[in-house]
Design goal:
By secondary structure, this protein is an alpha+beta fold. 46% of the residues lie in helices and 12% in strands. Bound molecules: zinc ion (ZN).
Length: 426
């Protein structure tokens, strides 16, 4: 028999159920359903209204969408009667007790006392196929398993989660120690905690809630279309942000994104701090520091000093790497890219490629301001000026004039190419 406990259902559970059900297949993926979730007073009001209609229903009332035929016929009539009498029998309602039957029927319209009522609708103008899809949507993904997560356990470390913070003995198999894990973790934690208050201080001028914005930024990470960024600002900005404020806001979000990337699991997983996975998370830290310096100035510089002091405690097993601070300088900082490097890349490439007025260069969009190319013998000179297409990508303004020079060296068969640092600043 159907009855429900009044225990409230957490909002997240309802959202998870709907999220799973929304993956049900439908004809040409039309997803012809709409869900309405009702709790509390809203549920009460709807139930009262529907029951009022039920109570006042005139005989012969015809539903807009018929579930059953007007006249039942065999063998369906007998089957229907059997199930009806069986069910009413379980409730102690005998044949012929129509008032009691009707009272029981009425309970449908109060969701049999369930604390959450969901109503699903399908557009009137859709046809029978959509009704099938709608049924599948309702039935496809009922909850099947329940699991409990035991905190601080993992499948790949018998010591809990020590693999990600200490010399627990789990590694990739080389005869190395992992004493470097603890100071590395500490260095990253300190960096994370060092940028957090600066993020709040700066972020509170730009966002309603900087941490909610940080969480919401995932939508921008997943889709960097300008409209998505626009939507992100609409949702989170504290006031209408100027272009410059938008740039700062996005830099702040990128910095926070990289504080999260620093904790990528494989950075701790293997044998040595000089391994490519660990160097990668140190590079994420370098990006955090780069943006912190850009956004906060002196406090950003101080973060780097503190970070390096802690990283020096993380010793590599291999002499060529030294320690974490050395790896930061020799491996991570050499990956650092700024707009100057983008401009240099553009300048050098422009000798060989004819770029459109605006062009995509990796994740950048570069706008040409002026450009010419001169050839003399085996040499070419391409003076020009370019900058980021500011509105398309929202990055800092930088206009880089460049003379890019190229000539081939006939004796070696190699080419030489470069800009002039003194004149261009790139
Ligand atoms: Zn372990």
């Amino acid at each position: 028999m159907r009855a429900f406990l009044p225990t409230p259902v957490p909002r997240e559970t309802i959202a998870a159920i709907l999220d799973a059900a929304a993956r049900a297949p439908s004809g040409t993926n039309m997803q012809p359903w709409r869900g309405h979730v009702l709790v509390g007073a809203a549920k009460g009001e709807l139930c009262a209204a529907v029951q009022e209609v039920f109570d006042a229903e005139a005989p012969g009332h015809r539903q807009e969408v018929q579930y059953y035929p007007d006249e039942f016929f065999e063998p369906y009539l007998s089957r229907r009667r059997k199930i009806g009498w069986d069910l009413y029998g379980l409730l102690g309602i005998a044949r012929g007790e129509t008032a009691k039957m009707r009272a029981q029927h009425r309970r449908n319209f109060q969701f049999f006392d369930a604390p959450v009522g969901m109503v699903f609708t399908v557009h009137r103008e859709l046809a029978t196929g959509s009704w099938l899809d709608y049924g599948m949507f309702l039935e496809k993904f009922p909850p099947e398993y329940e699991c409990e997560i035991e905190e601080d356990t993992s499948w790949s470390c018998a010591h809990g989660v020590e693999r990600w913070r200490s010399n627990c003995g789990c590694n990739g198999g080389r005869p190395f120690n992992q004493l470097w894990r603890a100071p590395l973790r500490q260095a990253l934690d300190e960096l994370r905690d060092g940028v957090a208050p600066l993020t709040e201080q700066e972020g509170n001028k730009l966002f309603k809630d900087v941490w909610a914005a940080r969480d919401g930024y995932i939508d921008v990470v997943l889709n960097r279309a300008p409209e998505q960024t626009e939507q992100f600002f609409k949702t989170h900005q504290q006031h209408e942000l100027s272009e410059q404020e938008q740039v700062r806001a996005l830099e702040l979000m990128e910095m926070q994104r990289h504080t999260q990337l620093m904790y990528t699991s494989c950075g701790w997983f293997f044998d040595d701090i000089g391994g490519i996975e660990t160097v990668q998370i140190i590079a994420y830290a370098a990006r955090v520091i780069q943006l912190a310096r850009l956004l906060f100035g002196q406090p950003g510089e101080l973060l780097e000093q503190a970070f390096l002091a802690r990283m020096a405690e993380a010793k590599s097993n291999e002499a060529k790497f030294g320690d974490g601070a050395q790896i930061y300088r020799s491996c991570a900082l050499t990956m650092e890219l700024g707009l100057e490097q983008v401009a240099a890349h553009y300048a050098i490439s422009s000798v060989f490629s004819s770029f459109a007025e605006e062009t995509e260069l990796f994740c950048y969009r570069v706008k040409r301001i002026s450009f010419a190319i001169h050839s003399s013998g085996r040499g070419r000179l391409a003076p020009g000026q370019a900058g980021p297409a500011f509105l398309a990508r929202r990055c800092r303004r930088l206009t880089a004039p460049f003379p890019a020079r190229w000539h081939d060296a006939p004796h070696t068969g190699k080419m030489r190419c470069g800009g002039q640092r003194e004149r261009t600043g790139i």
